[in-house]
């Protein structure tokens, strides 16, 4: 069959392809003129950013607002505006001439909603299908500038469609081919480029209002405006789609994801094939037209094999024509084992043959020699599912986009389990008959009958399987392509699956029953084929049943060792017997599950086998191999790496981490780093400044020409270098000058010191004289103090006092560095502290180290993860980050203490080392410059200044096992969790400890982790007892479940749409999208030990202020924020001189 189709046109859309507009579409007409506004009451609300709006304001000037617009003089040329704005193409526009018009309407007609859905789903092809329930259509037609004489007859035409459903709103913007004839408009005596984008407007804070987010889609370049009609983010030139609001949570405006444009219209031929040729074709106007679904010919002719035994239920075999199968016949190199032994598995031996060499698994292992697995151990398989599958007569496919597939196999009884996630109910029930998606997995690890081998034993774990399924009687066809990629470092088999074609529909709510069946496998060089006809029963929701069938043909291609004569003894035909088939679709969790028992044996059935090792009824441990004896006798033998009697097996002693134990062969820590990689393996690598293989590292001579100033001498040191100016020159060695010119601060200081008085200890400045202090580069220190009065204040770079920052004796203001010239950055002072690159990161703790994972958007850049701080023999629990000074703080319990270090490289500094028993959770108030921590032995919560001074206990009653603690500085709140097994709870108070109250106490188990998201105001926790992740708004009490089935969470943090948590059982950092409640990623560090605390190291501090952020809130000592002010508190050591306590408002 030849199908002629046309790809999409590459031309821009025309006005005729807009959503219908004008009087014929029953539009309303905005009053003509300049800066006209109409308030439109909505039948259904619009979601914009994190707000919900029951009315909008339509304006002449090319935008829709969420609040009544103020005078245009306040925003024209001064974007973004103070009010919420959806700018289709904002500028100073005019419709008073009667030619230009602005039409608008609400529309919930099927045609409008279908059009909107097509644009949205085309723009977000990897998201779930969206079906809007309401739309607002606004069209600016032939609008001119307010001063048209400057533009001649130039006019613009464009359209905005706001399409909404209950949980989201989208903006669809359409710019016609000739619709943008001017790109700027006059403003006063100049002109301003027109704007397109989305502005939230002003956001009210506790102290003042600030400009909210502004997502701009054009720039200040007029070419970016003209490009609106020439480019796209939706796959259709001139059409732009954005997700502009979601409920209940919102992170940011999301643009469409299809920026590529199709080629010009040209006919193409599709060769005859069964994967989908009935997909959508495009007309010139981009209207989707679906060809009718037609049957694709006669049924496949099925022939019985000649040796078919006379028994019920025997499978049928399709005659396979091998001419259309491209088999890459592979053989090992014609070398010998002497040069190729490394190509074999570590559990295999290499054997030379006259024509080459082959690898053979050792006793106790099975496989093809390239890949060998321990006999008896359960096996795991992980992979992804991709492709497009049409269901029934649906014109639109269901897309699979990296859906997770996980399989678990109990090898010693042939039982296999397969689960595929993110399966919507539009296709889930219809996939139930296809247990054969996992059938090849069952074949690969089937229980072997005497004299027969399963798939992995023959061909290993690298092969390609392609299956063609034809459903009867409708002749729907599906192709299943599966690539098995071998064993990974965890001994898991990796695979990928692609599904393409059409399947018959199974109604929602139906179940499917599959009886036992058999398949005959035919073996030849590098090719295995099988085929059969299968029946299945559909039990419909009303209880009635239908019996259906499909025909099945599959080929398995692989690479074998051609030199091994023993492989030629493999039976050319073997039969896979499958029973106890179980298929289930779990709609609530969007999971489809397959389970079955698999045996490989004689095609003619053979003699009945009673030995339990061959029936699977042996009772050996799942980590044991069953060894058959005489008759029905057998023994159970624990697999390699396990100890026990075979009935019960337990993991043998864990491999020693040679890096941690110090038994490695790496060079000394001053020259090399040892990185544990699991098992008994580790990697040695030389530190920066050294070269070698990690076991022997030699210093690099960094004193290359040009490294220092020409008037300086370079001195090479171990792993680093120093530069020193020659005699008569001054500077830091990187720059040297003949004479040292004094800075403004140095001149100021030295001029005052020149007026001296002489006392018993030599010259000194006059009593009461203020002398400025300069830093090492000669700049004014940000904080200046009077030596006699004790007053301190902040200064700018010129030494001028900043008003309102002066503090009294005993108190110091928080002065921000005013950007003095920093010293040149040389090597870090310690090889065990690594500076972080720019951007936002995750920091998490393990025994003896703090590691980081960079974030790209919300995705973990796992390949760039590395330790940032090594602290051998320390058990680090909590971690927190000060975004102001770029410092990481941590708690450790071996020698109980709290310490800190610069994330940009520097010495670890002990902050608190006394009166601690078990400090665990730690949190930072970056505004008030304080830290809070929990002590689970002393059962209290304390606060102190960031330098460890001014300690004060704020909570010391009714605590049993406090651990997680977090701050909400802008709102003055503190949150903590107590995992007391008898009465776990989550509590809150103001930062001074007042107004303490319980937030959650029911349905908790072990609430280990706690996080607060500043954007959504959500408090979230991870519970290792209930295995749930939950969230709530603390002020509302609207508790909701995010995810179930997590294993053993410990720490938790949030960033944007994602929650990240550490898991003790998985030894991993796990990412969860808290909007969808689904796991999105996992990172396992090289060192496989328990992970403890985790925090987000922000590239920039979160927005917000509190009363302690300026001049320490006027407090003499501790300033602790509250929602309406602050409390001034004294430290617990009452010896503090001049301390004044004040409670309440500011």
From TrEMBL:
Species classification: Eukaryota, Metazoa, Chordata, Craniata, Vertebrata
GO biological processes: canonical Wnt signaling pathway; cell-matrix adhesion; epithelial cell differentiation
The organism of origin for this protein: Dicentrarchus labrax
Any one GO molecular function term: Wnt receptor activity
Compartments reported by the entry: Secreted, Extracellular space, Extracellular matrix, Basement membrane
UniProt domain NIDO: residue ranges: 88-247
Protein name listed in UniProt: Nidogen 1a
GO cellular component, one term: plasma membrane
Pfam families referenced in this protein's UniProt entry, alphabetically: cEGF, EGF_3, FXa_inhibition, G2F, Ldl_recept_b, NIDO, Thyroglobulin_1
């Amino acid at each position: 069959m030849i199908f002629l189709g046309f790809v999409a046109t590459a031309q821009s859309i025309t006005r005729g392809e807009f959503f219908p507009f004008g009087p014929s579409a029953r539009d309303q007409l905005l009053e003509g003129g300049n800066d006209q506004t109409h308030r439109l009451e909505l039948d259904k609300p619009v979601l914009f950013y994190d707000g919900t709006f029951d009315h909008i304001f339509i304006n002449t000037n090319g935008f829709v607002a969420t609040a009544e617009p103020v005078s245009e003089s306040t925003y024209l040329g001064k974007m973004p505006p103070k009010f919420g704005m959806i700018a289709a193409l904002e500028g100073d526009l005019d419709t008073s001439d009667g030619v230009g018009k602005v039409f608008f309407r609400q529309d919930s007609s099927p045609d409008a909603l279908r059009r909107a859905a097509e644009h949205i789903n085309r723009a977000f092809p990897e998201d779930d299908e969206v079906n809007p329930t309401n739309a607002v259509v606004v069209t600016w037609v032939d609008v001119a500038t307010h001063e048209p004489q400057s533009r001649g007859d130039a006019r613009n035409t464009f359209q905005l469609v706001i399409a909404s459903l209950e949980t989201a709103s989208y903006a669809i913007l359409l710019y016609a081919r000739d619709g943008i004839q001017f790109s700027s408009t006059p403003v006063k005596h100049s002109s301003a480029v027109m704007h397109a984008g989305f502005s939230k407007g002003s956001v009210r804070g506790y102290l003042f209002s600030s400009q909210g987010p502004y997502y701009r889609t054009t720039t200040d370049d007029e070419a970016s405006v003209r490009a609106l009609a020439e480019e796209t983010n939706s796959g259709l030139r001139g059409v732009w789609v954005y997700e502009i609001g979601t409920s209940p949570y919102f992170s940011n405006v999301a643009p469409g994801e299809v920026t590529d444009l199709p080629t010009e219209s040209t006919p193409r031929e599709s060769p005859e094939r069964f994967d989908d040729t009935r997909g959508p074709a495009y007309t010139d106007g981009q209207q989707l037209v679906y060809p009718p679904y037609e049957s694709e010919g006669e049924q496949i002719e099925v022939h019985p094999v000649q040796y078919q035994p006379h028994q019920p239920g025997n499978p049928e075999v399709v005659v396979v024509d091998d001419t259309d199968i491209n088999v890459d016949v592979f053989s090992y190199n014609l070398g010998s084992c002497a040069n190729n032994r490394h190509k074999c598995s570590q559990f295999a031996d290499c054997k030379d043959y006259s024509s080459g060499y082959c690898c053979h698994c050792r006793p106790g292992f099975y496989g093809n020699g390239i890949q060998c697995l321990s006999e008896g151990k359960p096996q795991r398989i992980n992979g992804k599912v991709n492709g497009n599958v049409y269901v029934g007569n649906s014109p639109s496919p269901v897309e699979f986009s990296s859906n997770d597939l996980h399989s678990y196999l109990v090898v010693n009884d042939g039982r296999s389990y397969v689960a595929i996630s993110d399966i919507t109910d539009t296709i889930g029930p219809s996939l139930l008959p296809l247990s054969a998606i996992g059938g090849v997995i069952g074949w690969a690890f089937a229980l072997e009958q005497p004299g027969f081998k399963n798939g992995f034993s023959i061909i290993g774990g690298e092969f390609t399987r392609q299956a063609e399924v034809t459903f009867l009687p409708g002749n729907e066809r599906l192709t299943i392509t599966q690539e098995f990629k071998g064993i990974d470092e965890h001994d898991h088999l990796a695979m990928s699956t692609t599904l393409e074609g059409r399947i018959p529909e199974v109604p929602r709510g139906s179940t499917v029953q599959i009886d036992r069946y058999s398949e005959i496998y035919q073996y030849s060089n590098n090719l295995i084929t099988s085929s059969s006809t299968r029946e299945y029963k559909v039990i419909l929701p009303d209880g009635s049943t239908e019996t259906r069938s499909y025909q099945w043909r599959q080929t398995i291609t692989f690479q074998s060792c051609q030199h091994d004569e023993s492989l030629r003894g493999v039976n050319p035909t073997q039969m896979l017997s499958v029973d106890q088939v179980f298929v289930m679709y779990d709609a609530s969790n969007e999971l489809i599950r397959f389970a079955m028992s698999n045996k490989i044996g004689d095609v003619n059935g053979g003699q009945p086998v009673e030995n339990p090792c061959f029936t699977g009824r042996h009772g050996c441990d799942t980590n044991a191999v069953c060894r058959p004896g005489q008759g029905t006798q057998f023994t159970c033998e624990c697999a390699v790496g396990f100890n026990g009697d075979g009935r019960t097996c337990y993991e043998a002693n864990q491999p020693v981490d040679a890096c941690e134990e110090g038994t490695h062969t790496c060079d000394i820590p001053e020259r090399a780093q040892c990185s544990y990689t699991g098992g008994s393996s580790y990697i040695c690598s030389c530190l920066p400044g050294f070269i070698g293989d990690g076991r022997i590292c030699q210093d690099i001579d960094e004193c290359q020409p040009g490294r220092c100033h020409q008037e300086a001498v370079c001195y090479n040191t171990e792993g680093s270098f120093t530069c020193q100016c020659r005699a008569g020159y001054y500077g830091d060695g990187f720059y040297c000058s003949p004479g040292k010119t004094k800075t403004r601060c140095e001149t100021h200081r030295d001029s005052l010191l020149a007026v001296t008085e002489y006392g018993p200890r030599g010259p000194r400045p006059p009593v009461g004289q203020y002398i400025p202090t300069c830093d090492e580069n000669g700049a004014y220190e940000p904080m200046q103090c009077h030596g006699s009065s004790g007053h301190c204040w902040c200064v700018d770079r010129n030494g001028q006092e900043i008003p309102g920052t002066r503090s009294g004796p005993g108190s110091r203001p928080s002065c921000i560095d005013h950007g003095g010239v920093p010293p040149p950055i040389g090597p870090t002072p310690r090889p065990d502290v690594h500076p972080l690159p720019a951007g936002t990161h995750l920091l998490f703790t393990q025994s003896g180290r703090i590691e980081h994972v960079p974030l790209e958007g919300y995705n973990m850049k796992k390949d760039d993860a590395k330790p940032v701080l090594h602290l051998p023999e320390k058990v680090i629990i909590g971690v927190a980050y000060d975004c102001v000074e770029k410092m990481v703080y941590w708690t450790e319990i071996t020698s109980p203490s709290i310490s800190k270090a610069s994330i940009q490289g520097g010495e670890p500094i002990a902050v608190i080392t006394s009166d601690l028993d078990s400090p665990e959770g730690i949190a930072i108030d970056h505004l008030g410059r304080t830290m809070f921590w929990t002590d689970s032995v002393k059962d209290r919560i304390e606060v102190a200044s960031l330098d460890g001074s001014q300690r004060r206990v704020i909570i010391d009653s009714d605590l049993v096992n406090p651990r997680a603690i977090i701050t909400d500085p802008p709102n003055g709140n503190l949150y903590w969790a107590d995992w007391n097994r008898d009465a776990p709870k989550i509590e809150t108070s103001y930062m001074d400890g007042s107004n303490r109250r319980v937030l959650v106490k029911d349905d908790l188990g072990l609430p280990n982790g706690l996080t607060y998201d500043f954007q959504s105001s959500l408090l979230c926790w991870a519970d290792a007892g209930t295995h749930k992740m939950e969230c709530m708004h603390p002020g509302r009490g609207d508790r909701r479940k995010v995810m179930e089935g997590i294993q053993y969470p410990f720490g938790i943090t949030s960033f944007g749409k994602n929650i990240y948590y550490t898991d003790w059982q998985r030894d991993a950092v796990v990412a969860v999208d808290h909007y969808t409640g689904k796991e999105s990623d996992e990172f396992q560090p090289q060192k496989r030990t328990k992970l403890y605390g985790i925090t987000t190291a922000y590239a920039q501090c979160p927005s917000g202020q509190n009363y302690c952020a300026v001049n320490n809130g006027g407090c003499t000592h501790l300033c602790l924020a509250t929602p309406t002010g602050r409390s001034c508190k004294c430290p617990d050591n009452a010896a503090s001189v001049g301390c004044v306590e004040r409670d309440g408002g500011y």
